Amino acid sequence: MSEIKIIQNKILEILKIFIETCEENNLTYYALGGTLLGAVRHGGFIPWDDDIDIGMPREDYEKFKKIASEKFNDRYLFLSEDTPGYKKAFSVIRDTSTKIVMNYSNIEQEESLWIDIFPIDGLPEKGVKRKLHEKQYLFRRMMVQLSQFNSIVNQNKTNRPWYEKVIIKIAGILIIENLLSFEKAQQKYLASIKKYSITEGYAGNYTGAYKLRELVPTEYFGNARKLQFETVSLSVPKKYNEYLCAIYGENYMELPPEEHRVPHQYEIVSLGE
């Protein structure tokens, strides 16, 4: 069996226990991002993908955190923004029988294979209130990233907008991490993304890679539908086609060029049992 297939099988097992927990507790979730794209286009994993992206409405997400923090503390370990030393604005479940080294930034970090669980929060539908919130969100997100500059920012990434390249260059010169408090930046960032309910008209994953493109009409989520994902039945947004078009464009069913078919940047130390 290929290495990527072993990785996919490992994280599929994490997904199964996540779904089981949600069903036992009547919690709503949706496949997001590349996981949703894989379900629609491939009936499972995108062949080169090595993670799973799940979103939960904020209310369900907070309930899940309480359940998971008690349930997953052995081989499967739950971490959230409430976990000391864990510096993300979303949650993960890790398979601690595995070991990987994240090496995309200046500081290598030892972790385990995981699935991502993102909160889905709201956004005003239109107007000045929306524009101001978008700008505040982007600024708060940037400050959190700069406060961890050497540990989470991929400074060698080439396909960035010119202004991001300028900010990264300046941050490197100033040794920006020494000037910013992660705790304060994270507190303000979390307050920003939690500010609006999904009933405002728009909603999405503020912590996703595609930023504002991931904030879509709330009706896109709606009552979840089921799609096959490998061997499991997976909940997906009601209007998953519109959601995928918003993020990836209308041609999302087309495969990307081969040079873009790459997994995450990490070194595998052990894949466990």
Low-pLDDT stretches are: none
Tell me the number of helical segments per DSSP (H or I, 4 or more residues long). 8
Radius of gyration: 18 Å
- Average of per-residue pLDDT values: 90
What does this structure look like?
The chain has about 270 residues and is α+β, with helices and mostly antiparallel strands. It has eight helices and ten strands. It has one domain (about 5-270). Helices cover about 40% and strands about 20% of the residues. The strands form two sheets. Strands 1, 2, 3, 4, 5, 6, 7 and 10 form an eight-stranded mixed sheet that branches. Strands 8-9 form a two-stranded antiparallel sheet. Helix 4 (about 125-145) packs antiparallel against helix 7 (about 180-195). It is globular. About 30% of the residues are buried. The mean pLDDT is about 90.
Give a short overview.
The chain is α+β, with helices and mostly antiparallel strands. About 40% of the residues lie in helices and about 20% in strands. The protein contains 8 helices and 10 strands.
Keywords:
eight-stranded mixed sheet; globular; two-stranded antiparallel ribbon; 273 residues
